[in-house]
From TrEMBL:
PANTHER family: HIGH-AFFINITY BRANCHED-CHAIN AMINO ACID TRANSPORT ATP-BINDING PROTEIN LIVF. This is ABC transporter ATP-binding protein. Belongs to the ABC transporter superfamily. Keywords: Amino-acid transport, ATP-binding, Nucleotide-binding, Transport.
Length: 240
């Protein structure tokens, strides 16, 4: 069976600096796959490369068997790959409701009201704040909005870049629970980049470890959670 997303020997550069050095990653339909690694390992660069900005200099990225390596970002989005980027990047002057409108797929506007209600059920805080400007929300609420806006596109693949960054543990738990629920009830496929290795590995079916732009290890989420090397490097000496 062809994987939903295949990243093959991808190298990405910023000028003369190589940020990704021959990365191979696969995500099967219906999986939650996470990529963990230290800050600056190249995790966010991989996410952005999948979305076409920057483009891979060498290697290949396939989505549903189709080569998207040289495709512009807006065309990649039309294939129903949605991203909740690092740093949230919501529209601060727009209300919660308007942000959700911006995320909605033009092809699926007939489902708009249904999808908005689904987001409010998933993140009840957003329903309470629907007429509030995005910039006035707390960090956790902005993260919920960023994910909900991406989900409004009815994605076949959801890319999540550091969803727990800077958030209180209770908020993180709620966000990860929402991702799990969507995966279990709707079969949503998720590729997750995360520094909170413990939460990400617990959530994921499979995982990759990235060091200096290279994938150095892969395996089942629970398998890597139990791996002494991973625990020492990313789980504070295994104290979790």
């Amino acid at each position: 069976m062809t994987a939903l997303l295949q990243v093959k020997a991808v190298e990405t550069y910023y000028g003369n600096i190589r940020a990704l050095a021959g990365v191979d990653v696969e995500v099967q339909k219906g999986e939650i796959v996470c990529l963990i690694g230290a800050n600056g390992a190249g995790k966010s660069t991989l996410m952005m490369t999948i979305c076409g900005s920057p483009q891979a200099r060498t290697g290949q990225i396939l989505f549903e068997g189709r080569d998207i390596t040289r495709m512009p970002t807006h065309e990649i989005a039309r294939l129903r790959i949605a991203q909740s980027p690092e740093g949230r990047r919501i529209f601060p002057r727009m209300t919660v409701y308007e942000n959700l409108q911006m995320g909605a797929s033009l092809d699926n506007l007939k489902y708009f009201n249904e999808d908005v209600e689904k987001m409010f059920a998933l993140f009840p805080r957003l329903k309470e704040r629907q007429s509030q400007r995005g910039g006035t929300l707390s960090g956790g609420e902005q993260q919920m909005l960023s994910i909900a806006r991406a989900l409004m596109a009815r994605p076949k693949l959801l890319l999540l870049d550091e969803p727990s960054l800077g958030l209180a543990p209770l908020i993180v738990k709620g966000i990860f629970e929402a991702i799990r629920k969507l995966n279990e009830t709707e079969g949503l496929t998720v590729f997750l980049v995360e520094q909170n290795a413990f939460a990400a590995l617990k959530l994921s079916h499979r995982a990759y470890v990235m060091v200096n732009g290279q994938v150095t290890m892969s395996g089942g989420g629970r398998e890597l959670l139990a791996n002494p090397e991973v625990r020492a490097a990313y789980l504070e000496g295994g104290r979790h």
